[in-house]
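Because showing beats explaining, we think one record worth quoting, sequence and C-alpha cells together, and here it is:
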Amino acid sequence: DPLATGVLVLGIGHGTRLVEEVQNQTKVYLARIRFGATSNTDDADGEISPFPNPIFPNETDLRNTLPKFVGNR
C-alpha cells in the first residue's frame, strides 16, 4: 500500500529470535477519514469528488461503531 507508513522489523542472525516478541506487541493504527467525498480509486491517491447528499455521523454514532473495529487478528 503506497499510502501506508510504519516500521518493517527485520531479524538477522541471533536477532530472529526476537521477531515473535516484537510481533506480539500492541499495535496502534491512526487513520484520517474524509466524510462527504469519494475518489475514483477508493483511496486518497485518486481524484477526490464530493459525494452527493452525504450523511455525516455524529459523535455518539462514531463512539458506538468504532469498538467493532477493535480486536485481535
Notes: The chain is about 15% helix and 10% strand.
